[in-house]
Fold each of these.
Amino acid sequence: MSDLAIGLLSFPALLGLIFLRVPIGLAMFLAGFAGLVLVSGDAGLPLARLKSETFTTFSSYSLSIIPMFLLMGQFASLGGMSQALFNAAAAWLGHRRGGVAMAAVGACAGFGAICGSSLATAATMGRVALPELRRHGYSGGFSTATLAAGGTLGILIPPSVVLVIYAILTEQNIAKLFLAAVIPGVLAALGYMLAISLYVRLNPGTVAARPPLPLAARFAALGAVWPVLLVFALVVGGIYRGWFTPTEGAAVGALGTAVIAWANGGLTLTSLTQSFMVTARSTAMIFFIVLGAAFYNGFLALTQVPQEVAAYVAGLGLGPLVILLVILLFYLLLGCLMDSLSMILLTIPIFWPVVQGLDFGFVSMADLHAARAAEALTQGLALAPDVLAGIKGALAEGGELTRDQLRALEIRGASPGALARINGEQVAIWFGILVLIVVEVGLITPPVGMNLFIINTMDRETPISDTYRAVVYFVLSDLLRVALLVAFPLITLVFIPI
Amino acid sequence: MHGFFLTLSRAMAWLGGLVLLALILLTCVSVTGRALSGLSPGIGPVRGDFELIEAGIAFCIFAFLPLCQITGGHATVEIFTTRWSGAANRWRQMLTDVTFAAVLIVIAIQLAAGMESKLRSGQTTFLLEFPLWWAYGASLAGACVAAMVATYIAMLRLAELALRRPLLPATTDPEA
Amino acid sequence: AQEVTLKLHQFLPAQANVPKDILDVWADNIERDSGGRIAIARYPSMQLGGAPTELMDQAIDGVADVIWTAVGYTPGRFPSTEVFELPFLVSDASAASYAFWNLYESDMQEEFRDVRILATWVHGPGVIHASDPVLAPADMEGMKIRGASRQVNALLETLGATPVGMPVPAIPEALSKGVIDGTTIPWEVTESLKISELVEYHTEFTGPMLYTLTFVLAMNKEAYQALPDDLKQVVDDNSGLDFSVFAGRVQQDADAPARQIALDAGNEVVTLDAAQSAEWARMAQPVYDDWLADMQGRGIDGQALIDKARALMDEFSAAH
Ligand code: NA
Ligand code: NA
């Protein structure tokens, strides 16, 4: 059997193991190990790799951001942020039809701004909001579905563990990916609120509204959540402005939320221990999957599968949009069965070489010149009036600048190579956000949706089938958003400088 | 017996959490130092912060593994196995956990071999020039506990198979 | 027909200068000279897994059969090779690569005993690329500079700069964000990193280089031993002194096009004259003292290595 055949056959073998309920990280590890044995003839190669690969995988500076973000989420919850967010959202939305559910989604969005994980967001907000939803007469299935969907905002709104992994796998800038996720993340929250209002109209009798609060009370509730905004602005803004690396940003955020928790009296030895335990468990779970994926992907590279797949797809002569849609559809299907992180780690090494070659032509040379010229013109350069007029004229017509005009503006790096690099980056960011959304849909699609499970275990009276039925509204809202973002890339890329 | 391994796992997780907290503080000190480096020549980022984080975070992850192991925290996909009989699921669980134990034992042994090779070669880090085998050694402690805990779980699963009744809770609270 | 496949693993993308113009040449020659009996499977960009710092161990343990790595990735392991990384010692990459191979054969085999060395070389002159002009050593004071090696970092500290450690791919981001004010790398690397778009000033030296880095092409010992004698001969014929000198020359020659890009972009390339360069070299003396003391602690006669390296480089330059 050729190496390529072994590599291709490892996929069904791996999926078989996963469906036999072998832990996903272990399954990838075993598939990688067995594959390396088959390809190299004995166990010497995989054993030799293990001498350093566990250590080098775990001792990663960029991945150290993950336990820091997880701990940050724990501290935020200790500091009463989850309750404060829910109170604030309820003060503004609680009087509407379905308002308490909308408030739960709003609070999830707020918590997502300081928590990097969907499961943690779902679990934390579930504890706060589930009793409230039930108390206000929402049905069990709708309450659990709302919080399961709201939990995905933990990943969709930056900071986000999945985006960090994507950035590392594709060597993209984490800060730009975080920035690009902001508008789609807000759209997600709005979309979920729309889904709620649709649900309460189609299923009357589930909602009891209460009178609106006076404005003063609303602003008072909002005043309690300013630390969340502060930490979010400091972390995401600081990373983006280059004050610190993403890992440093995570550390600053973790310390910031720790201080808030301490100031609010939430940080005790008991609660600190509890935070450590939860962080430890999730971190170990994530990193074992990362290790398994590293091992499996190393084996795949040896069999040349990623290169062959990329060459095969390129040879099909399909348009870039068709390729993109096929990949997104594949994620949606796989997402019914697998969790988001495993999907990213397993598939990006295969899909990335394909996507990297796609050109959507987002930025033209004229765009690039216009952007650079706008920047340069604010510098107050002393330009001859006729030169300035020529430049402004060219820009107004949407044309490219001449070499002399570029010189006059002291613009460097507006070469075709730079343009190709910028377009490549834009595709990478756009694709990353789209993938982020479709893999997160997997967290709430039956039968296997981690968020559905987490919330459902908190409400023993509600059968999971009720949750499955109610979550359809939220899944539809997700699909609508994906379509929107595919049709209008600018929604994602508007803030990304070229 | 279970109490002993659970306490051991929690103690390791606690230690890892403490180191994580220390790394967070170290990073914040370094960021502050860099921001203020213009004020005085003595102020600056922490020398070698990058490599301290790399060494420290590896220890954290290895120290976190035992707790994940003993509380069944690894991500799985449950769809086809839910309709299996109790006996079939006990067999499946036993095979999975015995394999997991074997893998973690192999990982610990190979990590020890890696440490030995770093000790012999004398490789150091880039800036602080501390021997790399120290970092390997710290990680090895966590890897050994993880292997021990996994072996204990595997033995419980064999006992479950013999006794035909569950000894470990079927699912654990995700927030435990 | 094909008998053996050797896995060649390294950290740069396939289209970078070294893989394209040096490693591929080596691999193609071996495939040709073996009549197709040896195939070299090339794995760029760490495709076989692990970090670049692990490449040497991957060759020792047989994870890869052949690896190319910077010796500086494994600090403390091959201390003698650092002689070529001392500031202002090397003037020409070919001469230094010639000296490196000869010194490897005479003095460094013990340090590399776990692996079979196929070639040894250094890159072209290390250049300072910075957002502010750098002329005198005092200009470096207070600057945050990404250093390339232990010796460069030591020199930067001596000059009052703050050495910042980061992997090469992180440099463009750090420069554009002002996390660092400059970086030391040879011209050849600036092209793929687009350094000339990010800084305006480049400082070169006349005479000996600010610094260079040492590289080795290394092979797993068992993989070499397993080859039949005639194939061993093919590997030997394509490796060693001549190939090392070729590699050093090619890597240094790749500097010129990248330098031209900076000039075309309108950047200022300052070449310090001999007197100015000598001033810098004088400032580097503490680095030499520390290194000699460090070597003495390891039982190595550092001064002897320096003298031999200089004599070998002179010998090469006299002959060419
Ligand atoms: Na988030
Ligand atoms: Na799903």
Note: Chain A touches chain B through 62 residues (CB under 8 Å).
Amino acid sequence: MQEQIDVKDIQGIIIRGYSNFPAAEFLLLSIKDAALSKKWLSSILKNITPGNVKPDDVAAHIAFTFSGLKALGLNQNILDSFPIELEDGMTTKHKQFFLGDFGDSDSANWEWGSDNTTPVHILLMLYAKDSATLASAVNAYKKDFDSYNIQEIQSLGTTVLYERKEHFGFHDGIAQPTISGLKRKDSGENCLAAGEFILGYKNEYGQYTPRPGVPAEADQSNLLPAMPQTAMHDLGLNGSYLVFRQLKQDVSLFWKYVASVTKNMDGSVNEEEMIKLSAQMVGRWPNGTPVVLSPDKELADMGDKDDFGYRDSDPNGFKCPVSSHTRRSNPRDSLDVSKPVSLSISKKHRLLRRGRSYGPPLTETLKPIDCLNAAECDDDRGLHFICVNADIGRQFEFVQNGWINNIKFNGLYEEADPLVSNHHNPQDVKKTGSFCVYNNVVRKRMTDIPEFIKVKGGAYFFLPGIKALTFLANF
Amino acid sequence: MTQHGAYSIIVNIREGMQQQLNDLLQQIVDDDVETNTIVPFKKITTIHFARFVMLDKGNDAEGRSVPARLAFTTNFDMPLNNHLKQMVDVAGPGLWRIFAMCEGFPQGDYNPELLETFLATNNKKSETFYVGVGYRSVQQIRNENILRNSINDYIDSNRGALLNQSAIACRKQIIDFVNANPEMQWAKTPEPAASFIWNLMFWGKLIVVLLLFIILIPLIIPFVIIWMLIMLFHEINEKQVPNPVTKDHIRVLVNKETQLVQAQFSALGNLKPGTFRHVTMMFLLRTTDFLAPHLFSKGKLSGIPTVHFARWLVINEGRQMLFLSNYDGNSENYLRDFIHIAAKQLTLMFCHAEGYPKTRLMVFGGAKDAEGFMAWARYRQVITNVWYSANKQVSVKNIYNNGKIRNGLYGSMTEAEAQKWLSII
């Protein structure tokens, strides 16, 4: 039986990405005084947008790091009920290895979220219909911070780029999973059990992902519902976990590299080949057309195409390389097991992406040749990678480690993700990436791929349900 | 053609020596597992994988105490006596120091003969041994990976010339390159295939057993039905033991996973008490051991494509099970593969261990309970003190593909065949 999803108790960011709100800002906050912070939380509870409301002008969401929950004053046994991934965060030695944050992406160099920057406790996400509305909403929050002794660490702006592309010039955010039990309908392969993204519902194993709880006596006023079969009250119900990574993109480097390895014999730029190679690295053409469906050119009506596989038409990656970004971050039916098993494995490692670009585009329309020819500038631009998942270890970290960074992914030898992976693991003497594309006779191998992205900050957050927020403001 | 063996020695640690032994093993790791002076693994060329695991003192399922033990295991190229001799030759004094802290070990000054005898007589046969890398020696795996890398470098630097040629011509050029390379003279001829006698034994044994099985089916079926009913009765009545895994335990385990390509897993579990359980388990483990080379011959353990070697050992008079494996990726990925790909098959082998998620008829339930399985596996996982891998840069799939690349050097090919071969390089 389909579980009824309590949409009004879920933060709306899980339900929708607010594509109708082009303006957004993310505030990273630090708690200085637990009691005052809870008061502040109380005062803003009414602003947090529940899933059943589709606001006309502003939406607000809030999430907490483990240290944030601690700073609010939650006692140890409640804190202990949160998963190890939230507790350990992204910057331990093991996580550095697991997530591939080496070299320039080493957390020692991060602007926020590292051990040597002000601890991030709260993420406040604000979305608005236009920049003026956003500015006034942001200011309304900011003016209160002093009186509640909340420190603003960073205010991360966002940009909506031409035709909803990301900075490299590719249509982004296409392959999103659909949560079963909500209004949107989708194919079975793309329809995921609600428990993959919302705590308190059955996941793809037909089980409940472990979630945090509060001893009944710590919730005297019964702000939280009882957790079935335990003596606990349910702090996790209708909540989730949010992964935030600020990824700086070097757009010039990307296009210069792709142009350099595809240039004509006379040294001139071969625009067509350059774009083709970039598409093979991404797995989709700039407009979103899946490379596996159209290996030679992008098609106008295929930009949002998402119901396709690799196994039958391209088992060896001759059309869309096995190493391409989209084929490895969502392998669909292409893993080296039977087709139904591959599909079911893929479903257990999906992410609900809610990222936004930031910083000015290198060129207005992000046309590859324009990006290539644009004057080089070191503007800070990139992606605030944000995703929502119920099990950080099984979803985000698994994809990042087992698929994106794994040079042996699905039979490969030495190829990590050509677009987003890091090549500075100290065990690997080679400090560049490799990527292979096939043709009729001998494959073309590139072994000198530089890093196009650099991690500048990041943290794991608990994204509570509305009742859980009320508890956090009043316990 | 190389055969692989699983050498295991599991001995009691002498009272009061745990810390000292732990420190000595840690020194191997701190010095560099490949080149340290205690057991310089890299020089023991018959080893694919090796490990030392200290098993803490504990209690079995019925509360009886189990002493602290040291397990030392290798996956080696046969024959065993050659392997043992090489270990003693290369690392004799170091092994002597280690085992001198264990019970039943000859005391006194270093004596290579006594050490070799000790290692040989204490070898514990695995109940089940799985080989994922199929009949390839340590050196062959290394060579074939070098071959693959060299061919790729060659193509990189000659791609312009190769592009305008037929696949057959390209292949010929690659073969010429290999043959002209003084370091790859071994690749001029294929690895010798299995002998007729070997094939006869390999398939003969299977055929005899299958024939017996078919003849006895009328007897086996009622027997199995009754057996399964008794098992069901046991399953219903067995008390489920919790798996109170802590975050700190998981931290210690995953912090040791620092290799780029491969990882290891060691787990120690108490077996459920009772003769019925024990007999059933031994039958299943040994049957799997017998069938494994036939069932899992393509580098896939019940469909899992990442396992180099795995072994199941029943130890301490049948009271505990020790499971050891070497695989590609990380432990989270590996355990998820168990659940996603081979839940039923592995449940059949592991459900005799205490705390395993509840089963019905030994295949239903079990690892289907993903949360329960993960908790059980992590709770029972133990720290591997020392771990060595000889070919740490290759995955199981690489090893198989390298074999195909090498085999493509021999004989003639059609244009289509040559094209296909070029595409796997």
Note: The CA atoms of residues 55 and 431 of chain A lie 47 Å apart.
